Amino acid sequence: MGIRSAALAAAARSSLTRAWPARTRLSVGALGLALVVLVSAAWGTGIFYLLARLGAGSPVRLAALDGVHAYVGLVGGVFVLAKVARVGLRHPVAGVPAVVPWQRWLSWSMLVLYGTVFLSGVIVLLPVRGRVFGNLVELHLLTSVWALLPTTWHVWHYRSRALPYLRRWTRRAAGRRFWSALALVALPAPLLVADGPAVSQLPQVSGGSRWTPIDALRGSYLDAIATSPDGRTLVAAGDALYLSQDGAVWVRVDLPAAGAAGPAAPADASHAGHEHGQPAPANAVTALAVGPDQVFAATSRGLFLGGFDGSLRHLASPSGAVRALAMDPGDSRTLWAASDAGPAVTVDGGQTWSVQAAELVHPRDVSAIAFLDESVYASDGSGVFRWQPAAHAWHRVSLQSSVSVLSGSPAEHALYASSLDDLQVLDRGGWTDLGQPAPVHRHGGHVLGEVPSVTAVAGRLYAAGTSQGVSASADGGWTWTQLGGGLGQATAGQVVRRRGSLWAATSDGLFRFPLAARSPATPTWWAVVLAVAIGVGLVAASVAAIEPRRRGARP
Length: 555
Known about the structure:
Elements: H1 2-19, E1 23-26, H2 28-53, H3 62-87, H4 101-123, H5 131-157, H6 159-169, H7 173-186, H8 189-194, H9 201-204, E2 212-213, E3 222-227, E4 234-238, E5 241-244, E6 251-253, E7 264-266, H10 267-270, E8 287-290, E9 294-299, E10 302-307, E11 312-315, E12 322-328, E13 331-339, E14 342-346, E15 354-355, E16 368-372, E17 375-379, E18 384-388, E19 393-398, E20 405-409, E21 414-418, E22 423-427, E23 430-433, E24 441-443, E25 446-448, E26 453-457, E27 460-466, E28 469-473, E29 481-482, E30 492-498, E31 501-506, E32 509-514, H11 523-545, E33 546-549
Antiparallel strand pairs: 1-33, 2-32, 3-4, 4-5, 5-6, 6-7, 8-9, 9-10, 10-11, 12-13, 13-14, 14-15, 16-17, 17-18, 18-19, 20-21, 21-22, 22-23, 24-25, 26-27, 27-28, 28-29, 30-31, 31-32
């Protein structure tokens, strides 16, 4: 009786085993195919970032790819963890016969590479600042490139195992589950594209596009650019003055020798071209200031006052060459100049000048001067000083040496002091060291990159003259990135914003860059994307890769 009962129980267990799976197991083939698709999608979106960082520009809006790239990376991370859980970290792999050691070594190396890609990609999305951010971005890009070769070889080597699964799955229920899972993964993508906030730094600074040259000024040597206070008139300066009301048609005004007046002519008909990279012409504009209806321009031959109609006349000027001009934003007749005689001021539109050098260490070496709100700042090489009208003297506010460019930003109430090796900002009453926007390279005794001129636009900073052409920052100067390509070997001297575009004065003419800034992703957006990616990834892995395995069945 006992033997008969035991036999009946064994028969019942055998029947249940045939009717229901005793346990399940993830399919290596399904996980491998899913990872091929996800990695391909990540690489397909990531290649546009690589192109933009190399200076080639991107043919699509990077903000539209940001969410998709991050989402695919997170889902891919879920599938990588699922495959690690299935395959394990030991040499033998259950259900996969004839695994040799070098195959496992390759798999382990790919796990390290993809782990580095994933972790660095997540960290750069956090508020990391400074050189650490740049190093993490480079690490993310480099490990992505390094992973491409072993991944390609790995897929090719295992094609004999993957292709039969693929052909079989297209005709069976397992195949329908697999492609349904991939469709589930792709379902949120259109929403991320349609409402894509700026996740990476390039979209936040409107990067990814290209600089395009203005044909009328192609080949002209330009070093400075500004707009009138109302934004209607664009003024560029270098080998001559160039005036435009629409950015397309330009009038060239040649700056004559002191005491003479030169005629105005269309820019595209009369300008003499200069090859990029060459030094400034002998009579180049050394300083520029633009008022509501007039332009002050200084050359080695004197100071000139021009109108927007192309008229020009010579003005009295401080003794010696003028290296910088700063106009009072509240009174266009008050102008400060950095000259060989020291800093000088005029309150009558340049008719008379008064040298003001009290308390400066090297007044004749003043090379930068700028307004911030109602205060005047100057640098004499030993530090930065603020003018105190009541005391008729300068007061030191910074020990930063060798500052040759001061850039005031009234909207941000900030003053940027630039030297060849450093950039500092005076903001909220104190100085902050921001480091260098881009590395300065020294090759063959030549310095690649100049002292940057900083322009603030809607909370973003753009630095012209770096070794990368124009660098941009979306976080107040803590981290910088290259702003598009297209400048070639031209050296950018200054940038200005006008009507939704950046305009750059360079040694090879004028270039324009369209701005289409996107707002950064909010914590709520990130929480939603993270939850959706993990949830969809887990469900997709279960639907696509879990296959029932009966007791006693071959793997």
